[in-house]
Design a protein that fits this description.
mainly alpha
């Protein structure tokens, strides 16, 4: 691949830093006290890597009409390894919550409500945008039978989105958000498996909750035709939680030599592998995450206020970046003009899109995500 892509990584990073600093001055949000600031700081970078991953895919798609994984090891790992880290983080945090549960009683109803308020409103907002775009692109006319439209609409609303989930007959609807929703059913499956995991760790769990939640997880897996290999990172996250719960690594992995080890491991992975989903890559990602979760902040970068504020908009960034890319290339530049962009012109467009992306995500975080999370927390406080 042309060297131009790699040459633009530095200016993109500079624009990202300026954008985050400027947007946080324009739209202020407070940082909440959390147990793992390094993980919070990590998330924003992971979501931004997914944006770069899909930017690369868009460049190839515009030229070839093929939506395919990047040939570049780095840019493909920006997508695959990042998702592996997201799955590891989910498993680690929720398994750790099980270990830290001092009361021995878990309100599984509250647990589900908190997950719903955290994930669904922002997702629903992104899907509404997609529904509107589809309506516009199909000239606000019904092109397929009602039942077919109903099935595809429900599949989008309930996260079961695949390359065959075309809305109103619009071919390759998934491109409107870069197909990022495929990861969400796996996240929800893990959430529903948590009572079973708690039982495995001999934590007291209501049998009805175990059966109901496990059945829901099975239904999601069947409907989504889930691949078991995508659950391997969750296993990695659980193992990290178990290891840190033993307190054997406390304070040890914070040393700078382990930061260098983590960077070395990631460099080896990028150099030798095109993706991040095979067992050896998942082991590497799990070891790197173990170092970070132990409190290693990568020379202060991950735990800085900058990274944590950036990390707050992770979910919005993950859900909206694909939609923004579609709008830029379809409506603002136009597909025909976009096809003719040189490498330099294309990556200049991507660089220019960073500020509006961060601005939009900060707005949706503050006015959609935060209020709904606050409702969930208030309900929990009232009950306690």
């Amino acid at each position: 691949m042309n060297f131009t892509i790699y040459a633009f990584l530095l200016p993109i990073l500079v624009v990202l830093i300026i954008s985050v600093l400027l947007v946080n001055r324009l739209i202020k949000t407070d940082l909440s006290e959390i147990r793992y600031p390094e993980i919070d700081g990590l998330r924003g970078y992971l979501a931004f890597f997914v944006f770069l991953h899909h930017s690369y895919i868009w460049q190839v798609f515009l030229k070839t009409k093929n939506w395919e994984d990047p040939a570049s090891n780095l840019f493909n790992q920006f997508g695959e390894t990042t998702v592996v880290f997201f799955f590891i983080i989910t498993a680690f945090l929720f398994t750790t919550k099980l270990f830290n549960n001092k009361t021995g009683v878990i309100d599984w109803s509250d647990y589900l409500k908190s997950r719903f308020f955290r994930l669904f409103p922002m997702y629903f907002f992104s899907v509404i945008i997609i529904f509107f775009l589809v309506a516009y692109l199909t000239q606000f006319t019904i092109r397929v039978p009602f039942i077919e439209n109903l099935k595809s609409t429900l599949s989008w609303l309930f996260f079961n989105v695949s390359k065959n989930s075309n809305l109103n007959g619009l071919e390759d609807t998934f491109i409107l958000n870069s197909g990022i929703t495929w990861t969400l059913p796996y996240e929800w499956t893990f959430y529903f498996l948590l009572p079973l995991i708690a039982l495995w760790f001999k934590i007291k769990v209501n049998l009805k909750a175990v059966l109901a939640f496990t059945a829901a997880a099975a239904v999601i897996m069947i409907i989504n035709k889930s691949s078991l290999r995508h659950f391997m990172p969750f296993v990695g996250g659980i193992i990290v939680a178990i290891l840190l719960n033993t307190k054997k690594f406390e304070g040890i992995l914070k040393q700078k030599k382990y930061t260098l080890l983590a960077i070395l491991l990631l460099s080896i992975s990028v150099y030798f592998f095109n993706g991040g989903r095979k067992p050896i890559q998942i082991v590497i990602s799990s070891v790197v995450f173990l170092i970070i979760a132990s409190g290693n902040n990568f020379f202060g970068i991950l735990s800085s206020a900058f990274s944590r504020k950036f990390g707050q908009i992770t979910y919005s960034l993950y859900l909206l970046h694909g939609i923004l890319l579609f709008i830029i290339f379809y409506f603002i530049i136009g597909l025909e003009r976009a096809k003719t962009l040189t490498n330099t012109e294309f990556w200049l467009v991507i660089t220019a899109s960073v500020f509006p992306l961060i601005l939009i995500c900060q707005l949706t975080f503050k006015y959609i995500e935060l209020p709904l999370m606050s409702i969930s927390k208030r309900n929990k406080t009232k009950k306690s």
